[in-house]
């Protein structure tokens, strides 16, 4: 039934209407998408259990009581248009329907601009299918000609709601329809190119882009930017950069946004040299860098560990009258903390505050964590005091970071007091908070308090997860409490948690330290039967190597080493030291281990494990055990391949230029 008749019937029957007529017309059986949109619009409905009196007519008759007629047009039409605009702005779809019903009944002229207003209202209400429905009824029901303007409006509503596949379907249907006779313009192409990029079908976006000249459409800056961004996100940087030259040849001048898209792509790839050249190109074209340009470059420099250059660029940014935002400062502070320079991060924070910016909770958490890890306990405490005095309300992450830092300092009792303060303020701790406290008590030989803490955690199932179990089991094994650790292990399995590498390795070490090597090997074999996410790592193997070599069972240790290589796990410095010590102390006559390490290097090269082989070579040189000539030859062949040499040269140039 048409929506006008439905609305009229509802008014005549005087029954309460829970949904505006325009929404009631949505047929749940028409399509899955329409069913979803109908359900999403339920927020506009009046609850069915409350009777609703019939609404007052939105268009009083006295407004149109005067005015001479001239054909089908009357002076009142402008009033109708104003009502449509107002109701669309308010999202009052019931009143909109009444206006449309009256205009149709009185044969008033409906213009496309009014429909565009309604389409936008549907977009704001997240009802794209109703916009599509009204678009199809424009001609037959309201005798209003559709043009590319209304087509673009509906297409934009669909895509803005994230329905990219639906948008492509709508585009193809309308453009291929001979009855509608609508040709796309630049805006149409910009929308579908965006949809194709969002869907991850960048090749389809390129096809649409190349199709534009065939339809006499000239791509604009937005077209190029959208396609460049899609290519960069797919890692196709070269194609994106080539579009910059193409757009300039076509007379389309890039903006700061265009350059920022490419600079961001190059920085994420780590190609700072070309990113810097793009900035130079940007300046030559008279396009000044903006905040986004600086933020992108600073972030790229921090990712590459070039903190000094990032700070210099920050100073240039401030000198250029640009105001750095929280992201800019946070990126530099995070980079400094990663390099173990949390004190310098504090200076940047001071610089930030002096210029009127406020640090967010992420910045404070990062600095607190860095200061504690570097052993700067007093500075971390002063920072925490500053946070409280500046009335920056700490959240769960900040409290958890401070508690973890206090436990690293060896003061779990004080950390427990902070936990109580945190809970008194209504801030809920998480698994990380409790894990830190457990680790703190266990490290300070206060295992009984750790057990009491664990019992407290078990009373609230929300705070016990696989990480908590791993931390607790590791600490108990380190303290020699294998029986209690086994009870926790069984409890973990009973609750459906899968032991991880840390849990298995902790137990294996506990057995080995307790002289129960067979139990450790048994658990190791069980570990091998688990999925790929729980395979032994080099730490697990080293624990077993050490235990076997101490017992003089070097042959068993060598067999285990073969298994380790077969599993794709490379030996490290600790592995080499364990075997070198065993070969010199347990064999008669003793060996210096040169033959052993030389053979190990060749086996790793044969398996194309160049990084692992390089580590062993480094150990040999440090211990004055020179490799054989044949081993050197293999090393040169693997390490000095043309691509690797070129990559090293490019890296050097990048360091010099940037």
UniProtKB/TrEMBL annotation:
SUPFAM superfamilies: HCP-like
Composition bias, Low complexity: 20-32, 39-51
Chain intervals for the UniProt region annotation (Disordered): 14-68
InterPro entries: PPR_P_subfamily, PPR_rpt, TPR-like_helical_dom_sf
Repeat keyword on record: yes
Keywords recorded for this protein, A-Z: Repeat
Keyword Repeat attributed: yes
Residue windows of the PPR repeats: 185-219, 220-254, 255-289, 290-324, 325-359, 360-394, 395-429, 430-460, 465-499, 500-534, 537-571
NCBIfam families named in the record: PPR
Membership in a protein family: Belongs to the PPR family. P subfamily.
Name of the protein this chain belongs to: Pentatricopeptide repeat-containing protein At4g20090
